[in-house]
Amino acid sequence: MTTAVLLFAVGLMLSAFFSGSETGFYRVARVRLLIEAMEGSWISKMLLWATNNPAAFVATALVGNNVANYVVSCATVLLAKLLLPDGGPATEMAFTIALTPVVFIYGELLPKNLFFAAPNRLLRRCAPGLAVAGTLFSPVSAALWVVGYVLQKVARVPSQALRMELARRELAEVLDEGHAVGLLSPAQRRLAQGTFAAAGRSIREFMIPAGRLAQVDLGVSRRELLQFARRRQQTFVILRNGQGYVRVLDCLLDPDNPQLPIRDLLSTPIKRNFLTTLLNMQAANREVAAVKGEQGRIVGYVFAEHLKLALVESPVR
């Protein structure tokens, strides 16, 4: 009887350990782990490695949960046979049903709630046990990792995209926490979220096609250019064939100069992303950039003010 009770307690603790640590793994702040790892914490380094290799941790937790369930089942059957030797399968089934709420509450629900509330602290305390479990279960975990890798290739699941999505959500939580404690103003928080939401998007999504943008010839006079800009309510006028652009403000500030204050266009490939394009335009002090296709031909234009506006309007996905 003592052996059966101890076996049940061990299985229950294993279930709580692996179920709780799995919840903590998905809740832990990776930014905090990175900072602590840079300070020399070997536990944080180990956990940071696990977050960068989630398949290994998930396989270990899966094997651990199965071992815990097997131990609990064996203990339940042993208890049923010891208490009611002549009960048979019906008694074993009744004992299993009777102990299910205990296993669910103390082996699943309670530890998950605890790790959900304090993931960093509890996961750090469980790190040595997870390292031992990872070593003991490594043969089975490796086999599960291979199966998962094959399924990923067959299903063509973009694992990098999934990791980026998790990182984006985690960053959003960090920004929310910073706003909650007063480190970020609403405007700063929205700007940061908009930056990360739009950073990887293609510049194609923000460009105006060349055929839809009104342009003027190089030999146009200053007066004609101002009239053209006034009719279309434009602050910049693009010259045809990518010969540059003119700021209306420059023309108004120097009305006596007969020559147009033409500025060179910055060119950017159509495959370049949003953030790189905006940074290049800021570095070159250019308000307009010509977007070139694969053949080197101008296919559209992007304006710095439109890109900046997208930073505060981009939804956080």
From TrEMBL:
Entry-linked PANTHER family: INTEGRAL MEMBRANE PROTEIN (PTHR43099:SF4), UPF0053 PROTEIN YRKA (PTHR43099)
Stored InterPro entries: CBS_dom_sf, CNNM, UPF0053_domain
Pfam families: CNNM
Keywords from the named record: Membrane, Transmembrane, Transmembrane helix
Keyword flag Transmembrane: yes
An annotated GO cellular component: membrane
Organism: Posidoniimonas polymericola
Domain CNNM transmembrane: 1-188
Transmembrane stretches, start-end: 55-80, 92-110, 130-151
Transmembrane helix found in the keyword field: yes
Protein name: CNNM transmembrane domain-containing protein
The organism's taxonomic lineage, starting at the top: Bacteria, Pseudomonadati, Planctomycetota, Planctomycetia, Pirellulales
Domain of life assignment: Bacteria
